[in-house]
Specification:
The complex is a heterodimer. Chain A is mainly beta. Helix content of chain A is 0%, strand content 48%. Chain A is globular and about 45 Å long. By secondary structure, chain B is mainly β. Helices cover 0% and strands 53% of the residues of chain B. Chain B contains no helices and twelve strands. In chain B, strand 8 and strand 9 form a beta hairpin. Chain B is globular and about 40 Å long. The chains are: A mainly beta, B mainly beta. At the A-B interface, strand 4, strand 5, strand 9 and strand 10 of A face strand 5, strand 6 and strand 10 of B.
Chain lengths: 115, 114
């Protein structure tokens, strides 16, 4: 079974530029999560999708971050314009909507550096 | 809101020895799940072990076991016969019942000394 795929693995941009990250969840997983992990901290949820609908985006800085999950499969997270404090690892995770505890499986992450 | 606290930023253990990583959490819920994830330098979050709150029996996965104390809201991870490959960041995480996101602690960096 293929795992969660993410790209790119690394990205370096200057502040005020835009950037996009891509995630392909495990086949059949209806729920997809984007987490932000700042250096030295645990991951924090940015947005949760179930199929192609948003379940929770309360922690997403909507003035600069946007995310979509067209057709309920792949997802894209965008930052525009980027700030220095957006430097972090962006993790995508997916889970199957079956019997609990519905373990979340993580992708390898994208390390973003904003200069 | 639920919170997860890992009070040990760093730990070290000799190869083949046993180490215990601590985790406490705060919640008013009665039904929830607890997890330990391992994050090596590659950044991939790997599930180590999980525990359902309604189960009294402590979960075990090979060399990894937990000590789940529901009343004390404590969830420690014991790694037996430590191996060099166990060196990584370890995160304790909480999840409410239902399809909800994980709440993570700040992590414990484990070093294994040969």
């Amino acid at each position: 079974e293929a795992g969660v795929a993410q790209s790119p693995r690394y990205k370096i941009i200057e502040k005020r530029q835009s950037v996009a990250f891509w995630c392909n969840p495990i086949s059949g997983h209806a729920t997809l999560y984007w987490y932000q992990q700042i250096l030295g901290q645990g991951p924090k949820l940015l947005i949760q999708f179930q199929n192609n609908g948003v379940v929770d985006d309360s922690q997403l800085p909507k003035d600069r971050f946007s995310a979509e999950r067209l057709k309920g499969v792949d997802s894209t997270l965008k930052i525009q314009p980027a700030k220095l404090e957006d430097s972090a690892v962006y993790l995508c995770a997916s889970s199957y909507d079956g019997l609990p505890p519905d373990t979340q499986y993580f992708g390898p992450g994208t390390r973003l550096t904003v200069l | 809101a639920q919170t997860v606290t890992q009070s040990q930023p760093e730990m070290s253990v000799q190869e083949a020895e046993t180490v215990t990583l601590s985790c406490t959490y705060d919640t008013s819920e009665s039904d929830y799940y607890l997890f330990w994830y391992k994050q090596p330098p590659s950044r991939q979050m790997i599930l180590v072990i999980r525990q359902e709150a309604y189960k009294q029996q402590n979960a075990t996965e090979n060399r990894f076991s937990v000590n789940f104390q529901k009343a004390a809201k404590s969830f420690s991870l014991k790694i037996s016969d430590s191996q060099l490959g166990d060196a990584a960041m370890y995160f304790c995480a909480y999840r409410s019942a239902g399809n909800t996101p994980l709440v993570f602690g700040k992590g414990t960096r484990l070093s294994v000394i040969a």
